[in-house]
Amino acid sequence: MRSTLITSSTRLARLILLTPVLLALSVGPSVGRTIVVDCDGGGDYLSIQEGINAATAGDTVLVAPCVYYERLTLGPSADGVVLLGDAGPDLTIVDGQGVIGPPLLACVDVGPATRVEGFTFIRGKRSLGSGAGVRCERADVRLTGNVIRDCWASGGWGGGIYAEYSEIEIVGCTISGNRSDDGGGILIMWGSAQIESNIITGNRADGFHGGSTGGGVNLGEGTHVVSGNTIAGNEAAVGGGLIVEWATSVLLEGNTISCNNAWYSGGALVVYGTPIIALSNVVVGNEVGYGGRGGAAIIGGGGDPPSSDPPIFTDNVFFGNAAGSESAIEVVHDGPLPVFQGNHLVDDATYQIVVDDTPSVDTLDFRGNWWGTDDPDAIAERIYDSSDDPSLFWSVDFSDWCTDPSCLGHVTGVDGGRELKKTWSTIKSIYR
Q1: What tens digit of pLDDT does each residue of 306-346 get?
Q2: pLDDT digits (tens, 9 = 90+) for 226-285
Q3: In the chain, at which end, N or C, are there fewer CB atoms within 10 A of the end residue's CB?
Q4: Are strands 269-272 and 297-299 parallel, antiparallel or unpaired?
């Protein structure tokens, strides 16, 4: 923490700047105190943790711009406290300096009125521990408008954010440049998560101590909603962008999943044992290493226990994925068979769909999709199933195929700001 001697005129100026914020916070039926933290001495406390320790339910801890060299805990006594960066994440920074220690922010046994907004959490580092940036345990907390970057959980999970037995909301945050064994950006298990309108980019699941799954996001047991996010440029051995394992249910809607890389399988997405519903996502330009599987996605496998409902994919765009891979989407036999209807399936791999290791005769429902061609023989050549290998008992039903991209309506959500090997202008010219 930095503390400097300031003049009375500087103190007055800070109070004048803070007055509109304080007045706004005081309006409304909820009556709580506003506790001001200012590392320059212009508030009630010099450190954020001192402000948290003084707060109770309904209070707001308003933190003035500064770089705070602290590690914070919101525990049971801070249940219902709002922790607010006054000037936003660019100027309100909690810096772990890359020194091994506890999480930069630990939320433990707090309820849904607890909120953290407007901070950058940077350079947290843990050794053989999870959650170097933010760690939540039995915490129903809302993280809004924060930046969590360059945090590393070596030998642990969730480099940026880790949550267990929690109901966590992550909304409007930037989660970038984080590392861990699994879930480089985010790892959630034994609870539920709403992950909405975030930028999740440049994270990495290294797996020095095993794992290497879910470069951007790793979702385990629980019920999760992932909507409106940009998940881009993340890396892992399995599931470069996102992996879902044994969750109760997952809604994946309106996300752009692009330019992620898996060294072995599932460039954009891996789904194990989960009844996922994937709607209106744009999955573009993802890759696997040479000889890897599922440049766009792996559905099933991993020896998973079967879920009760099938994975369903509708109104998604799969385009320009699978460099280095023979298969764009690979379907493995564990659990109920996935259903793909009304999607754009236009990837670079030799085969758009590959079925693998099938135990009994069955049919995959891939009806009503656009395959980049209106020729049924050309579509059949892009599918590897029982007609290609008699030891595979599954066949792919691609009937009712679209004869042009527009038969599925207009595709939205393609961001023109990123350049890919297949340019965005090419994508838009095809799909708009």
Answers
A1: 567 899 999 999 999 987 788 999 999 877 889 999 999 99
A2: 999 999 999 999 999 999 999 999 999 999 999 999 999 999 999 998 999 999 999 999
A3: C
A4: parallel
Q: d(Cα 48, Cα 260) in Å, to the nearest integer?
A: 36
pLDDT reported for residue 207: 76
Count H helices and E strands in the chain, helices first. Answer: 4, 45
Q: What is the pLDDT of residue 309?
A: 87
Alpha-carbon distance of 8 to 2, in angstroms, equals: 18
Is the CA virtual torsion 265, 269, 274, 279 positive or negative? negative
Task: Say if CB 103 and CB 71 are below 8 A apart.
Answer: yes
Domain around 268: 66-431
Task: Quote the number of domains for the chain.
Answer: 1
* CA–CA distance, 160 with 329 (Å, rounded to integer): 28
- The pLDDT confidence band at residue 27, using thresholds 50, 70 and 90, is very low
Among 148, 94, 157, 149, residue whose Cα is nearest residue 129: 157
Looking at residue 417, what is its pLDDT? 34
Burial of 276 (0-12, 13-18, 19+ CB in 10 A): buried
Q: Give domain status of residue 253, yes or no.
A: yes
CATH number at residue 403: 2.160.20
Inter-residue contact 286 to 263 (CB < 8 Å): no
In a domain, 110, yes or no: yes
Question: Whose CA is closest to 42, among 22, 19, 14?
Answer: 14
Sign of the alpha-carbon dihedral angle for 374, 276, 194, 244: negative
Residue 333: inside a domain, yes or no? yes
Model pTM?
Answer: 0.88
Q: What is the mean pLDDT of the chain?
A: 87
Q: Are 39 and 64 in contact (CB under 8 A)?
A: yes
* Total residues belonging to the chain: 432
What one-character DSSP code corresponds to residue 305?
A: P
